[in-house]
Design goal:
The protein is of the alpha/beta class and 305 residues long. Helix content is 49%, strand content 13%.
């Protein structure tokens, strides 16, 4: 068994963590509770298990490169694979616009056209599509694409990161348009002046955004593992007299499964984010970069200890 303390010292940055994982022959298999594998074929059985447990699934592709063409094909193949396995209806496809070319300067109209095609294919099999969070520098463009495509596909969701200073205003704008909002605590690390950097301030911003969305009666996905934030969101839903069908909680695969099951037992709607793809190490390391206190815990998980 490899010494975890030695690996933990290699994880001060995302790049060093990725390198450490890539250097461990058994690491990919050990990380399977969090990322099932590199192909949608590996994700489908997990989606089936999620549904059997009374939850819904949101599937996210983790590409190894910025190949826009291959990402589009994988998204379409994902919809087909879930439909063939009879688990498409009620599931969600999480789409990163950066992967579709937003971060590399691709034509915005072409990105909107690709997203429109994905939304159409998803709707035909009973799925929804949600846009993943993007870096602050691409957020205005992402919101513009969302606005254009949601005119034809109103169930298109948008991820908002509560850590950004602008997010309360963005939540208000999306809610007034009747958009579905996936609220995350912190999606990307941003420099001071654009985002809250103190953990307590981020938590308070998350509560403010949740309160606003609950009060405006928009559809909200409360995507956090934090017990206190979940408790507050549930209380705000009661205070706002929200229909349980109008909001849900979302956990990442492998993180606090007992808490997800407990919420289901209370009648709450719960979704599980199921990621797959060749860039699994970067996915894990990004989560660690945003939550430094979980470095050792993640290293232990990757090593099976």
């Amino acid at each position: 068994m490899v010494d975890v303390s030695g690996v933990a010292k290699l994880v001060p940055t995302r790049d060093s963590f990725v390198a450490a994982l890539d250097g461990l022959p058994a690491a990919q298999g050990a990380i399977s509770p969090f990322v099932p594998g590199e192909t949608v074929g590996a994700a489908v059985p997990v989606v089936e298990d999620v549904i059997l447990a009374g939850m819904s699934a949101s599937v996210a592709y983790l590409p190894a490169t910025d190949s826009t063409a291959s990402a589009r094909l994988v998204h379409m193949a994902t919809i087909d694979a879930l439909d063939s396995a009879h688990v498409a209806e009620g599931s969600d496809l999480l789409v990163d616009l950066a992967v579709l070319g937003l971060s590399s300067g691709a034509d915005r109209e072409q990105i909107a056209a690709d997203l429109t095609a994905l939304c159409g294919a998803a709707e035909q099999v009973g799925m929804t599509v949600t846009l993943a969070g993007v870096a602050h520098e691409h957020l205005d463009a992402a919101l513009a694409v969302h606005s254009a495509v949601s005119a034809e596909h109103p169930d298109l969701g948008m991820t908002v990161s509560a850590s950004l200073l602008r997010s309360e205003a963005d939540c208000g704008d999306l809610a007034r348009r009747g958009s579905r909002v996936r609220l995350v605590r912190q999606e990307t690390a941003e420099r001071e002046g654009l985002a809250f950097t103190d953990a307590h301030e981020i938590d308070k911003a998350y509560v403010r955004c949740t309160r606003l969305l609950m009060a405006m009666d928009t559809r909200i996905v409360v995507a956090t593992h934090d017990p206190q934030l979940i408790e507050i969101a549930a209380a705000l839903a009661v205070r706002s007299d929200r229909d349980p069908a109008g909001f849900s909680f979302q956990f990442r695969l492998g993180v606090r499964p007992e808490a997800a099951a407990e919420l289901v037992s209370t009648g709450a709607r719960v979704g599980i984010l199921v990621p797959f793809g060749p860039d699994w190490a970067t996915y894990v390391s990004t989560r660690i970069a945003l939550r430094p206190n979980s470095v050792l815990q993640a290293a232990r998980a990757a090593l099976g200890r």
